[in-house]
Specification:
Blueprint lengths: L6 E2 L9 E2 L10 E2 L18 E2 L5 E4 L8 E3 L14 H12 L5 H5 L3 H22 L3 H13 L16 E5 L2 E8 L1
Parallel strand pairs: 5-8
Antiparallel strand pairs: 1-4, 2-3, 5-6, 7-8
Helix pairs in contact: 3-4
Protein name: DUF6699 domain-containing protein
Pfam family, one: DUF6699
Length: 180
Amino acid sequence: PDPTKLHIHPWLTHGAPFRIDLASSTFAPLPLAGGPHWREGTEDFTESAFHPPLMSLRIVHPRLPFWPVELAPSIAGSNSTPMMNINNVLRGLHQGLHKHMGQVDWNSLTEGDQQAVTGAFKARCRAEAVRIGGSPEQLRNWEIKTISEGVRRVDFLQGRTTFKGLVPIPEASSLLLLTA
């Protein structure tokens, strides 16, 4: 491998043996049918995400131009070198997309964008209730609870929330584009 070029672990580009719905309130990678067996928390998820290792990472998406997800490596132990692993990147991305949006952010949108984000927000709240399950009354209560928590950054993806990978941005060694 070219030591000057950033290499991204295949699980973060196109070759993941799992599916992640970034809209779900719970970080829960689901195995792909017929894919290799793995479990979250196994050493597979602690493999280095990048070579050479990155000390910081910014993940951007065209629908989130003002809200990049900023990540830094975790330190596994007192004698460990900081390293960004697959788990850090995926969990950090999920957490970053679930941050609340403020009124100033909302007011910066056009009326058309507000309508699209509102539709995605309502769909996410409904889907979250269905994921939890229960009686019709429980589903409605869960949907109301989720709605009361407000719009999140993930809603700006307007329903395109299945993680498809990260793509390097040329000329920017620590900037990656989210594909969803």
